[in-house]
Amino acid sequence: MEELAKEAGIPVRTVRFYRERGLISPPRREGRIAWYDDHHLARLRTIAGLLERGHTLTGIADLARTFESGRDVAEVLGLGEPTEETPVRLTPERLADYFEGEVTPENLAAALDLGYLATDGDEIVHMSRRLLEVSAELVREGVPLATVLSAARRVREHADALAELFVSALEAHSDEREPPQLRPLARAVVDAELSMALDRRLRHENTARPPRGPAS
Questions:
Q1: pTM attached to this predicted model
Q2: For the chain, first and last CA: distance in Å?
Q3: Which of 10, 16, 19, 12 is nearest to 49 (CA)?
Q4: Which of 10, 62, 96, 159 has the highest local Cβ count within 10 Å?
């Protein structure tokens, strides 16, 4: 424990306290000797990083339990690797930086359930760089992460329905398992329809909004 504390740059009593709180896992024991490894050191550095970002020890313990109950990256990728998306590896501290103040056990559980996040040892893997960046941008614009994730679940339902529609339509008239024109045609249709839907919605909002009074 003394060597682990020295590597982490913290007092031995702090390591012992974290161990008693369940923030780090028990060491491997051989007789009366306790062995700590790189996993324990990484966890201590994560705790320090999250404390610097304003998280409490209770909050960190809740986050750790949420991650440990989630699926690991092998299980998520076992469902099929993304064809066009780039996974992103993150430390817990880096994830907290992306969504400052919004990384809660509830939001983590929602992201894990959606399959956006998975665990790989001491790292977190976000399955799509594009979705990670868009989600972070929405949060920076003032949209709560819980709202973003709730919307993502609804988008997922509609996207699955659209995928079924396009695959069924093209496969019915093609001998290929995945016609090469499937993805570009589907994206073009969805992009155009979404653009026109946004036009309609924004025109409706502008029409329904009462006019501003004269400036004083």
A1: 0.69
A2: 69
A3: 10
A4: 96
